[in-house]
Amino acid sequence: MSEDRRWGQSDPALVHWIEDHRRRVLEAYRANPLLVAEHANQEDSYRTGGYAERQLLELVQNAADALHRSGVRGRVELRLTDDTLYCANEGEPFTQAGLEAVSHAFLSPKRGEEIGRFGLGFKSVLGVSHHPAVFSRSVCFHFDAERSRLDLLAVAPDARRFPVLRLPSLVDIDYEMKTDEILRELASWAQTVVRLPLSNDRPRLEQELRDFPREFLLFVPNVSALRLTIDGDTDSRFEIEHRCVEQPSGDLRLEGEADQQADWRVWHRTYRPSDEALAEVSEAIRREEIRVSYAVPLADSQQLGRFWAYFPLADETSARGILNAPWRVNDDRTNLLTGVFNKELCEVAAELIVAGVTTLATRDDPARHFDYLPARGREAHNHADRYLTDRVPRIAAQTRCVPDAEGQLQPPTSLRVPHFDLRLEPATHRAWHAAPGRPTHVPHWSCYQTPTRRARLRSLVRVEDNRASESEVGAAGWLEMVVPNGTDEQCWSALQIVATVRDDLTRQDMLAARVLPDSSGDLQRLDRTDDVFLRGDVLSSTAGLSLVRASFLDGHDTEDALRSLGFRNVEPALQLRKLLQKVDRGWGDHAWTAFWKLVDDVSVGEAQSLLENHVTLGRRLCVRCMDKSWHTVGNVVIPEVVEPRSASLTVDTEFHKLHTALLRAVGVVARPAVAHATLHDPTYLEYLRIVRDLYLRDMPPRGRPDLELLHFDAAEAVGPLHLLRRFADTQDPASRQAWTHALLEAEAPERVRLGHSNRRLFPFVREVRAPHLWAASTYGLLATDWGSRPAKEALGRALIEYSPLLPVAQCAAAEKLALPKTLDAVPTSVWREFMTRVPVQADAWRLGQLLTAAARSLLEETPAQIPALSGTSGVLAAPEEVLLVHAEEELRALSGRRLPYVAVDNPEAAQLLIDNWGCREASAQLRVEIVPETPGGPVILLDRFRGLRPLASGRLDGLELVECQGLAREVTATGGIDREPVDLAQDGNTVYYLASLEDEDLLVRLAEEFQLQLSNPSITRILSDAQDEQIKSRIATCRVERDPAKKLLRLVDTRTIESKLPAGLLQAVRRIGEDGGDHQLAELLLHVHGYDVLRELRHELEEAGFPVPTQWAGSPPAVSFVRQLGFPAEYAGERGQQLEADLTVPGPPT
């Protein structure tokens, strides 16, 4: 009861103030009725505006302010019944300032750390109640909307709305205590109780009570407990008490139900806004000092932070925790506004975050505070969050905020960090941190424990998010930091670190680290799997190969780890590949011998590929020669086509017996072959330079292409070519000649094209002679009848008829060279040499042709001697002693005399030799005559023997054959006349022959006379063809004759006719003396045999070559035959006629 009495002891001054205030307000309204509508509209704005749903928040804030003003900690309780909301608090009871604040607007006296502002928050009760009441131990009053309407209606009868909170009225506390049990309960401990009979929104209020943010207690240190109660039955009743208890560490613990406690750490800072900031806010809410608070949950750092104005705003921040301050917010009191005022508060908040979060780091988790920092580089939640995400990292970067490897906080710029674009797993950082050689001046591995922490570290280290800082190192450099001394343990830890990396690109970058110890004491890169090997042999050092340090390889599971990275033992193929890269001009017998022994250990296919590629790149490769010396490929040859005089040019086939295919692939061959290796042959390159120069010479000075970009279009070439020069250097003409011939016989294009790699800019292509033909022409030797000669001094095969009088190339393939093909093209140097050589061929006519051509070429020169014939031998004679022969008979006449001569076939040639060199006509020394006896009629030689035409090459054209019974050659000279019998001789266009010569013998003599190449089969064929021609001629002449007797004489000779006549008949006719000659004999034969005369002569006709039928007796073949001869069909016999067994022919009378 004493407590109740204390409640009834109101402050008289406050009672008087209420009564006086009511009177003065009504007077004011009477004096100015417009104030009624004005104040009513103001209250309506509180009811519907930003304060419309802030009843709980505003009531609790006012309660907290009362506790703050009292200077003691106390409790606050919110209770909701079915129809009423209560708010009770300890602390300072109502004062006159409080009365003025709730009865007016914008007059609240709260300053500094107080929450409420000018009584505006209390106006929010109009949103849920028409009869709010305040029960304080100092004074009790209420507001009644209906009473206010009635009181003001008389003052402003036209008003539609009436203010409620302008006319407070005193209440009877004793009565209220008796009638309101809840009020009485709350009043038992509270200094002030606000009661709001609800007009609406109870469900919302109930939900807000259930969801009330207990973190509010963190920013009102005078509120020790906040009790929230919703009356109802067992199922719907809600009751909880939130307490804020300071821990020995200074942290605050929010307690409620047993499982709902949470520890927080809170920092506060008082700030005095600048005049510019204060000018931005209205006088009603201006404060000279502002407290900014930052609270972070110690157990949960994953939730986004939020801006509070003692109660949550809608704005979030990536900084974890709560940033509480009297922000300048919008009318709805939900979002921060932009401006200088809030910017200054954000700057204070940024500094508070940096100063506060570093205290969260622990020994076990030195990077714990990273979880609370804002995220830079993400899309900001709002303008205030954007400010914090930019400023917090910048401010923090100037402080000791990053834990080093020992967990001590250091300035970010003092630490070395792996590049942030690397994708490193937390396990990688832990392995790196555990490495025995790792340095201290690096971030602690816990900085990389989560993506959030990595992002926060990035924002602390980088001034600009998209630009790496100077303290960042690449993956390789970062890994190398753990092997400062290159010990086995340090290097093993580096391998363990690599094994934790999952990202392929990062792993690839990391493999460039030099952390692998080799046997020479150096550290090699982990990606040098082609250069560093696990285990090797003595050749490994020769090849310059690096081996992993043996002690390192034998420890832990090092070998397995390295094999997983691609390292392996030195295999023969690998060693060969590396050895090829180390080939040096200084290699001697030992090195090259070991090299080829290694080749033997590699498969043929792989070795061939490696060696061929090596030579293709123009690199050095030597083979052993017969003298045990070593020479590069392209300068040696396998003995076969050539047997070099110098052993240094001959491959040691015994040493290289297993390398035949390999040598061929790299251009070491027994005979020239098409190979890529030729493209690096010195002679090939010499020719390429020459052709390039010629190409550029034809181009204008400006715009000429780079020489190095001009190449022949063939990817391979015949070679080797340089051997020709090597054979020349070693005085080995036989090998040089044989190799030249082999080059010429190689099957390869004879022309190549020189072009530019960019055909669009340089479309012109020059076609030139193939390199191997140029080499043969320039450095080769050709076999001629004058011996081996440089190709440029030999003559083409088109002049083969003058061999051996001229140096005509004997090799048929020499036609591929541009050698002289006519006598006019023969160089004068060859003609001069020709004048000095004794003829080795007794062909006066060819020798005469050559002398004529020589005279034309050497017009201004008169040689001392010229080649000629004497008898059948060649000689050198003074030009004036040489006789010029024009006929074969003159040749025969001179061949037996010891006079020098040549034969010329036309007067112009003779005159040239006479005029230029003083030669003489042979006719001035002797005369030759052919003397025939009983010559017959002339026959065209080629008509007689048509088969000779294709063999004579025109030499028999126009010649006639004349048969004679005797034949002699008479030579008239100064010594007298010589007569010589001959069987065949030519005089002009007439060829005389003895009648005693059979056709076969005649053919042989003609072949000898005119130098025709006739074989026995050729002679048989020609005779057969000649016989056929004779038969056809005799058949034709027989057919045109009318007289049967004359017909028979065209078919057979008289000797054959006589043999078919009865012996007595022929004797009787001759005895009578009636010899009518050959015609009479033919008539007698017709009389004897009649129509059977042809059948009687059938055997003789068949032997002569006539197509005699086998069957007569009027058979079709017989009829055809006799008609072909011009005889009537009766001469073919009668069909069915049989011959008698005996035939009696009367003989002469006895």
Features:
disordered N terminus, alpha+beta, 1150 residues, five-stranded mixed β-sheet, 14-stranded mixed β-sheet, Heat Shock Protein 90, 37% helix, 43 helices
Explain what the structure shows.
This protein is an alpha+beta fold. Among the domains are: 2-211, Heat Shock Protein 90, CATH 3.30.565; 295-474, no CATH class; 822-918, no CATH class; 926-1029, no CATH class; 1041-1132, no CATH class. Helix content is 37%, strand content 17%. It contains 43 helices and 43 strands. The strands form twelve sheets. A 14-stranded mixed sheet has the order 5-4-3-6-2-1-7-8-9-10-11-14-12-13, with helices on both faces. The radius of gyration is 68 Å and the shape is elongated. 37% of the residues are buried. Residues 1-5 have low confidence and may be disordered. InterPro entries: Auxin_embryo_med, HATPase_C_sf.
Summarize the structure.
By secondary structure, the chain is α+β, with helices and mostly antiparallel strands. The protein has 43 helices and 43 strands.
Which secondary structure elements does this structure contain, and how are they paired or packed?
Elements: H1 2-8, H2 12-31, H3 34-48, H4 55-70, E1 74-80, E2 84-89, H5 96-103, E3 133-136, E4 140-142, H6 145-153, E5 169-170, H7 173-179, H8 181-187, E6 192-197, H9 202-210, E7 223-230, E8 238-246, E9 252-255, E10 262-271, H10 275-279, E11 290-297, E12 305-308, E13 312-317, E14 322-324, H11 340-357, H12 383-396, E15 402-403, E16 409-410, E17 417-418, H13 426-434, H14 451-461, E18 472-473, H15 475-480, H16 488-499, H17 504-510, E19 514-517, E20 523-525, E21 532-533, H18 538-542, E22 546-547, H19 550-553, H20 558-564, H21 572-581, H22 589-600, H23 604-616, E23 622-624, E24 630-632, H24 660-665, E25 673-675, H25 682-697, E26 710-712, E27 717-719, H26 723-729, H27 733-745, E28 751-756, E29 766-769, H28 771-779, E30 781-784, E31 787-790, H29 828-835, H30 844-857, E32 866-870, E33 873-877, E34 883-885, H31 888-895, E35 900-903, H32 907-917, E36 920-921, E37 926-933, E38 938-940, H33 941-944, H34 949-952, E39 960-964, E40 966-973, E41 976-981, E42 984-987, E43 990-994, H35 999-1009, H36 1016-1040, H37 1044-1051, ...
Parallel strand pairs: 1-7, 12-14, 17-18, 21-22, 34-35, 34-36, 39-43
Antiparallel strand pairs: 1-2, 2-6, 3-4, 3-6, 4-5, 7-8, 8-9, 9-10, 10-11, 11-14, 12-13, 15-16, 19-20, 23-24, 25-27, 26-28, 28-29, 30-31, 32-33, 32-35, 37-40, 38-39, 40-41, 42-43
Helix pairs in contact: 7-8, 11-12, 13-16, 21-23, 25-28, 26-27, 27-28, 30-32, 36-37, 37-40
